[in-house]
């Protein structure tokens, strides 16, 4: 309270208009101004005095103006020092803080005194003590109720088993759970952890023992993901779903525990994605990437052979013309990609896809706005490569199946401060309306050959885990547009909002 009084006194003493009015001893102006401040202050009284110790304003007794300040503690203040004292004044004993008022020349021209009566302080103290006592009583009552429910719950849960039998069951369960190589978590119908084995704690990087994790919400141990949403869990069981548990990408399964048609909870099993068969789906993308590089190598060897033959034959003009014809477009594409994308792996992928598309009679047109000149930390590079590679493969394959002449595939890859935008537009066969809602499901495909139903499933999994969004729209006059919005940090904006704010070429 003394600090509060001191701060108020010093702040009032710094008000320029008040300083000027005190210096001029304009009592009416001081009264009008200070009456507004006193109305909003919780202080018992506020007093303004001049440099001779006479009242210029009193918030309680207006008739004291012109009388000497009571208390005898003005000497230090008139010498320019703020003080806080407990003295008896006209209203009684009070805690009061005084601050000097200086004019522009630095001379003390007045005094501000802000005080709290000890009776007011006693009232505050009593109210605080009462509040503490009430809180203590409520706490004791809550502890009593909690203890009663806790003991009642314990009696229900032991099923009248003897302590020895309970101990044996616990040891058997622990031995069984620790012998399982997969991560296993059993949760109840309120999504609280009942059992978690050592493999699960190791995969999730949890250092706390299992006994400390029991009873915690699954969302407190694993960062919230759609896999653990109540609506999703109640809808159906799932097997081999790609998820992101904390910093680990896993393949997870979820099965409900039922007892007499009553839901008791779920059992979740999961393994590191790299240790299971689904890894082959990702490796297939790497194989296609290597195949693209092999195609580029073969094309280059053929060109060098042709050029060598022309030079041996002395056809120098033809050789120059051949070099210019073959290298102009390739060099332009190479310069564009190498200047816009910092990742050598991504550059190799895009060049390979462009070469492969040309072999199939399809052109890739890169939007001039393309730019990814710094690492995108929200996604591992292999996942980004998989997303772009699968999108391009799908667009090229859909364009091939469309009538001749084939329209080019439009590509936009742009990283802004907020998000990464990937947009691939083709004028291929398009997506049938009846299958549009299911194209991201595993095993659903519109292809007639090659991998079936894994590419778009992987894309959707990676984008969702990164907090992004996917929009699929019809292209004009035919074909499809896939637009991906992956946030650099935080949550991605809705695709519709992005399209309203930004005009991207497709």
Give a structural overview.
The protein is built from 16 helices and 15 strands. The strands form 3 sheets. A 5-stranded antiparallel beta sheet has the order 2-1-5-4-3. Strands 7-6-10-9-8 form a 5-stranded antiparallel beta sheet. α14 (about 380-400) runs antiparallel to α15. It is α+β, with helices and mostly antiparallel strands and about 500 residues long. The longest helix is centred in the first third of the chain and has 40 residues, at about 120-155. The protein has helices spanning about 1-15, 15-25, 25-40, 75-80, 120-155, 165-180, 200-205, 210-215, 220, 230-235, 280-310, 315-340, 345-360, 380-400, 455-465, 495-500; strands at about 45-50, 55-60, 85-90, 90-100, 110-115, 185-190, 195, 240-245, 250-260, 260-270, 365, 410-415, 420-425, 470-475, 480-485. Mean pLDDT is about 80; it is low at about 490-505. The chain has 3 domains: about 1-120, 2-Layer Sandwich (Beta-Lactamase), CATH 3.30.450.20; about 165-270, PAS domain (Beta-Lactamase, 2-Layer Sandwich); about 340-485, Histidine kinase-like ATPase, C-terminal domain (Heat Shock Protein 90, 2-Layer Sandwich), CATH 3.30.565. β11 (about 365), α14 (about 380-400) and β12 form a beta-alpha-beta unit. GO terms for molecular function: ATP binding; phosphorelay sensor kinase activity.
């Amino acid at each position: 309270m003394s600090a509060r009084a001191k701060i108020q006194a010093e702040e009032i003493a710094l008000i320029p208009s008040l300083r000027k009015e005190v210096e001029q001893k304009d009592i009416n102006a001081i009264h009008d101004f200070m009456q507004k401040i006193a109305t909003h202050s919780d202080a018992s009284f506020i007093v303004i005095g001049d440099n001779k110790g006479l009242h210029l304003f009193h918030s309680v007794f207006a008739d004291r103006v012109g009388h000497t300040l009571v208390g005898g503690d003005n000497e230090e203040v008139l010498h320019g020092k703020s003080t806080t004292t407990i003295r008896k004044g006209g209203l009684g004993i009070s805690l009061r803080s005084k601050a000097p008022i200086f004019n522009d020349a630095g001379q003390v021209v007045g005094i501000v005194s802000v005080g709290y009566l000890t009776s007011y302080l006693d009232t505050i103290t009593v109210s605080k003590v009462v509040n503490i006592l009430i809180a203590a009583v409520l706490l004791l009552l809550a502890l009593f109720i909690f203890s009663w429910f806790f003991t009642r719950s314990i009696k229900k849960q032991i099923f009248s088993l003897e302590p020895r039998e309970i101990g044996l069951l616990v040891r058997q369960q622990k031995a069984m759970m620790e012998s399982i190589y997969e991560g296993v978590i059993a949760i109840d119908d309120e999504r609280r952890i009942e059992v978690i084995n050592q493999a699960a704690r190791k995969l999730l990087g949890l250092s706390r023992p299992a006994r400390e994790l029991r009873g915690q919400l699954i969302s407190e141990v694993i960062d919230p993901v759609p896999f653990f949403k109540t609506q999703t869990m109640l809808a159906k069981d799932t097997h081999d779903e790609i998820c992101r548990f904390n910093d680990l990408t896993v393949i997870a399964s979820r099965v409900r525990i039922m007892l007499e048609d009553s839901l008791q909870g779920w059992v979740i099993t999961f393994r590191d994605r790299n240790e299971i068969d689904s890894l082959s789906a990702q490796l297939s993308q790497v194989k296609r990437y290597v195949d693209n590089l092999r195609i580029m190598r073969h094309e280059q060897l053929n060109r060098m052979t042709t050029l060598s033959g022309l030079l041996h034959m002395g056809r120098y003009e033809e050789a120059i013309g051949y070099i210019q014809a073959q290298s102009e477009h390739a060099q332009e594409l190479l310069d564009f990609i190498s200047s816009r994308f910092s990742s050598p792996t991504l550059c190799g992928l895009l060049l390979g896809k462009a070469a492969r598309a040309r072999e199939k009679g399809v052109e890739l047109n890169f939007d001039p706005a393309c730019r990814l000149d710094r690492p995108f930390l929200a996604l591992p590079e292999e996942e980004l490569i998989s997303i772009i590679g699968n999108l391009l493969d799908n667009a090229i394959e859909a364009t091939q199946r469309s009538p001749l002449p084939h329209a080019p595939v439009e590509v936009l890859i742009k990283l802004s401060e907020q998000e990464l935008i990937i947009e691939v537009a083709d004028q291929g066969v398009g997506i049938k309306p009846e299958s549009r809602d299911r194209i991201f499901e595993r095993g659903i495909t519109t292809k007639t050959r090659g991998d079936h139903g894994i590419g778009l499933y992987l894309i959707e999994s990676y984008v969702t885990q990164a907090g992004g969004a996917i929009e699929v729209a019809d292209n004009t006059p035919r074909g499809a547009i896939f637009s991906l919005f992956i946030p650099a940090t935080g949550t991605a904006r809705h695709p519709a909002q992005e399209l309203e704010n930004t005009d991207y070429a497709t």
